[in-house]
Specification:
Layout: H1 22-38, H2 43-49, H3 55-64, H4 82-95, H5 97-117, H6 120-131, E1 137-140, E2 156-160, E3 163-174, E4 181-187, H7 189-192, E5 195-201, E6 207-208, E7 223-233, H8 246-280, E8 282-283, E9 286-287, H9 292-321, H10 326-351, H11 362-374, H12 379-391
Parallel strand pairs: 1-4
Antiparallel strand pairs: 2-3, 3-7, 4-5, 6-7, 8-9
Helix pairs in contact: 1-4, 4-5, 4-8, 5-6, 5-8, 8-9, 8-10, 8-11, 9-10, 10-11, 10-12
Length: 397
């Protein structure tokens, strides 16, 4: 017996919306409205020019609507759920991965580090301004020679009386050149407790953040190097609440969770573009959406988009009720980013030559996702995390 499908929403064929609470739908719709007004009309131009000229203004606007550190409690933060935050990431990345990165680095890396590990004085000084978008943060972990192996970092912090003196270089740092504060991780030696985090005002003498140019991905995002040359900080600059790699890895788990959702936003945008284009593009006297091979592509994209969104929602519900293990976050990041890139590539084939034009968002999302695929944990590293969880055997070395 055939059922009536006249009500079907091709962007939500299995009706995921029906299991969202009214409050969650409101968050989703509010973020979507902000993106439609302040990002979508301009982001292709930002990408083409390789600039984000309104970074400070946009950060303040996102702060004004409660999107910065929205899943944190207190200090001017919205205190919303993990699912709320995930839905926001999805909508932001449906506009552009670079914009989601701005919000993710601000809230899940820089703000989360201070919120989770900082002193009360550090929290009071920075978090309210960062939540409002009046101060911008960055997160200095990756180095030119140490990405997947952060324990080998060469940035050092040495004691000099009551002060700390930092030296080193960080690489591929989102928000670095516009940041007011950097959370920097450095080797302190055994006496200092190993790897420690420091809250570094970017106007500190010896701190610089030159822009990284010539990117072909995340072009609507500010990416920088951090250079620390004899940067002297007071003893109170150290994050007192954590020692060792547990600190930066805890922050990365927060950010990776947002990526699980965000990648599905980029995938949704590419799928929606392909679906609409296929219905309008006429070949052999009919829309190409009427051809079987095109329908196979659309059905596959919809299937993977649905699966990935359901996985993100499941992980969000777990995070809100019992918390997430790092390997569970790795499952989500590994699956969803890989599938999102494939969706963009298939969508590009539906658009043909138009798929490489910035008149459509597909190639922009595909290029951006090449960065998302490897930052905050490469495919290889997340594969090995999942492999260890499955087998009990560590295969990293």
């Amino acid at each position: 017996m055939l059922t009536n499908t006249s009500w079907a929403n091709p962007l939500d064929l299995v009706d995921i919306t029906s299991v969202l609470t009214p409050e969650e739908r409101q968050v989703r719709d509010s973020v979507r409205a902000v993106c439609a007004k302040s990002i979508d009309p301009y982001v292709a131009g930002w990408f083409e020019s390789g600039e984000l000229p309104v970074a400070r203004e946009l950060t303040r606007e996102l702060g004004a609507v409660g999107l910065l550190g929205m899943h944190l409690e207190g200090y001017g933060c919205a205190g919303m759920s993990a699912v709320d935050y995930g839905l926001a990431c999805l909508e932001l990345e449906a506009s552009d991965s670079g914009i989601r990165s701005l919000v993710s680095v601000q809230g899940s890396l820089a703000m989360f580090a201070i919120w989770a590990y900082g002193s009360e004085e550090q929290k009071q000084e920075w978090l309210p301004r960062m939540a409002a978008g009046e101060a911008i943060g960055c997160f200095g972990l990756t180095e030119p020679d140490f990405g997947s192996d952060p324990g080998g970092m060469r940035t050092t912090a040495r004691r000099d009386g009551d002060d700390w003196v930092l030296n080193g270089t960080k690489m591929w740092i989102t928000n670095g050149s516009i940041a007011d504060v950097a959370v920097v991780w450095a080797q302190t030696g055994e006496a200092g407790g190993g790897i420690r985090g420091f809250v570094v005002p970017t106007d500190s003498h010896g701190f610089s953040a030159p822009l990284i140019h010539h990117k072909l991905s995340l072009r609507a995002s500010i990416t920088s190097e951090l250079v620390l040359e004899e940067v002297r900080l007071p003893g109170s600059a150290i994050l007192p609440g954590v020692r060792g790699l547990k600190g930066p890895l805890g922050c990365l788990s927060e950010a990776r969770y947002g990526i699980v959702w965000g990648a599905m936003g980029a995938a949704r945008s590419a799928f929606q573009t392909a679906l609409e284009y296929a219905g309008q593009r006429i070949q052999f006297d009919r829309p190409i959406s009427g051809f079987q091979l095109t329908q196979q592509k659309l059905a596959w994209m919809n299937q993977e988009l649905t699966n990935g969104t359901l996985l993100a929602l499941h992980l969000g519900r777990l995070k809100d009720t019992k918390g997430l293990r790092p390997d569970q976050v790795s499952v989500g990041k590994l699956n969803n980013v890989s599938k999102a890139i494939e969706i963009c590539r298939v969508a590009r084939t539906v658009l043909g030559a138009n798929g490489i034009s910035l008149e459509f968002p597909v190639i922009r999302h595909a290029n951006n996702l090449e960065s998302v695929l490897t930052y905050e944990g490469t495919v290889e590293m997340h594969t090995l995390i999942v492999g260890q969880a499955l087998t009990g055997q560590a295969a990293f070395r």
